[in-house]
C-alpha cells in the first residue's frame, strides 16, 4: 500500500473544512490596508498632500523634506494598524515578489527605544542583490543594487508589515526588475499619445495612461495530494499521470456551481483583495475540473501589474488555510485545458476617455480608428516581441497546444471593423473630394457602432483580439508577470504613434487637411497590416499553413522566440524609446534563457528521480506479486498452469518491457542533461535543453503512464489525475 497517496485520500474524508465568514459589506473592506490618496489626505497637511498628489500624476521628483513628512504619516498610519516592520516590495526577474523586512524599532542611547521611519528609509533600501538574477550585469559591472520607492503605486499593509512598492536598480543604473521598464514604457506612451491627441483631436489632453484588466486562471489542488506528488512540489506541474476516464469532455463545470471548499477559499481571498485595494469583481469555474478564474475591474497599468503580483502572492498563503495548493503553472495536467492570463489593454486620457472606444460622432470615431489602427500596426511591426515576451518553459505547453492561443501572433477585429477596413482601403490617394469626405464621415466612420461591445463574434482562438473597447492579449501565461507584456505593448504603441505623427504632419505640410492626412496614413497602414489580420480558427492546421504563406512567424518554442529578442530592430525600438538599453536587453534575454534551461533541467532531474524511486520499484513489486501467483498456479495445476496464467505472464512481460525502457531512458536523459548543463552560452544551452532533453521527458512519460494502467491501483504511489482533479 502506498502510504502518502492513501493517507492524503483518507485525510480528505475527515477534513475539517473551514467556513469563511464575510463580516461586512465588501465595499467596507475596500482599501482598508492601503495608504492611498484618501488615507494620505487624512494623515498629511494640505500643502504636502497637494505636492504628493501632483507628483503622482506628473511623475515629478519628491524632495527629501516632503518625503520625510510622508514617511512620518505612513508610520503613524501603520502603527495604528499594529505594524512593526517595513519593506520595499519589488518584483525581481525571478518571477516572485521580494521583500527584506526592516524593523521600525530603533533603540535610543538611554535604554529607551522608539519607532523610527523617515524619508530616507522610505525612498531607498538596500537588499542584497547577489541572490537575484541579473544576466551577467553584476559580473561585469558594479554588483550591488538598491530599491527605490515608486510613489505612483500606494503602500499597503500585509500582516504586520508595511510594504512599499519599489523599483530595483543596480548602482550602475541598470534595471534589475520588471517595474522599471514598465514605468518608462508608460511614460513613453503617455508622451506619444498625448502629442497625437493634442495635435489632431483634443487640445485639452494633458495625459494618456495605459489601462490593464487581467484575468487570472488557476487550479486548486488538495494540499495533501499535492504533497504526495514530488513533481507538483518541485516543478509546479505533473510530469506523469494517465488521463482520467472522465476528462473535461462533459464541460459540466464551466460556469457550474463552485464547490464549497473552493468557494470558502475564494471568499477569503476576495476579502483580502478588497483590503489591499485589488478590485476583484468576477469569479467562476473554468473549462477544466478544479480550474477557476478571478478578474478585477481594470486599473491604470502600473497599479494593475502590482495588484496581479500581489494577488499571486497572497493566493498561495490563503489557499494553505483551506488545505489547498494553488497551481499557477500554465499546464499542471497534460491533456487538460491549461491556464492563461488574458491581459485586456487600452489607453485612456486624463479625462477618462477610452481611446479604443468608438464614440457618438465621426470625429470621435476617427480618433478611435487612429488608435485602433495604430495598435494593429504596432503589433504587425513587432509580433516576435509579443511572442517572446510571453515565452517561458511553462507557457510552451500552452501556446500552440490546441487549446490556448497559437504561437502565431495574429489579430482578430471582427466582421464589422473588417468592413470598415475594406471601405477605408478605397480612400483616394492625396486630397479627397468633398463628396468622398462626406461619404467617409457619414457612411464609413460615422457608422462605426457606438457600442461594439455587444458584438457577439468573439473569436476565442485568437491570441490578440479586439473586444469592443480594448484589445485582449491572450498569449500571456497564468504564472507570468503582466509587466512584460505591458512594457512591450506600450513601448511598441509609443514607437508607432511617433511614426504616425511624423507621417501625418508630412502630409499636412504638403497641403492636406488634418483629416485627409490621417485618412491617407490610415489607408496605407490598413494595406500593410492585412497579413496579420485573421478571423478564422486559430487552432487549425490550415491556419499554420496559411500563416506561413503570409510570412507570419510561428515561434513554437521559447528558445526560438527568445532568439528574436536581441535583433537590431528590437534594440532600436527599446533604445529610441528610452525603455531598455542594449545591455539591459541582452541581460534580460540571458536571464530568460537561463530560467528556461533551469526549469527543464529541474524537470529532468525530478522525473529521473521519480522514475527510479517511485515508478520502477512499483513495477517490480507488482511484477513479483504476479510471479508468485504464476508459481502458485504451477504448484496447483502442474503443467496445465499455462492456460490459467496466460494473462499474468503477459502482464509480467509488459511490465518488464516498460521498466526496461524507463531504466534506459532515465540513463540517457541524465546523460543528455549533464551535457546540456556544461554548455555556457545561454541561447545554445536553451536550444539543447529544448531539442535534446524535452523529447526524453515525453518518452519517459509515455512508459510511466502505460505502467500506471497496468499496475494494481493499491500499489501506485502517486495521486492519480482523477483524484487530483475531481476530489472537491
Ligand atoms: P469578458 O469577460 O467577456 O472577456 P469584460 O468586458 O467583462 O469581457 O472584460 C474583461 C476584462 O477586461 C475585465 O478584467 C475588465 O476589467 C477589462 N477591461 C474592460 N475595459 C477595459 C479597458 N478600457 N482597459 C483595460 N481593461 C479593460
Ligand atoms: Mg477574457
TrEMBL record:
Q: Give the record's keywords alphabetically.
A: Ligase
User: What are the protein's GO molecular function terms?
Assistant: glutamine synthetase activity
* Domain GS beta-grasp span(s) in chain numbering: 84-173
Does the keyword Transcription regulation feature in the UniProt annotation?
Answer: no
Query: A Pfam family name for this chain?
Result: Gln-synt_C
Group of enzyme by EC: ligase
Q: What is its EC number?
A: 6.3.1.2
Q: What family classification does the UniProt entry report for this protein? A: Belongs to the glutamine synthetase family.
Q: What's the protein called, per UniProt? A: Glutamine synthetase
Q: Which organism is it from?
A: Candidatus Ornithobacterium hominis
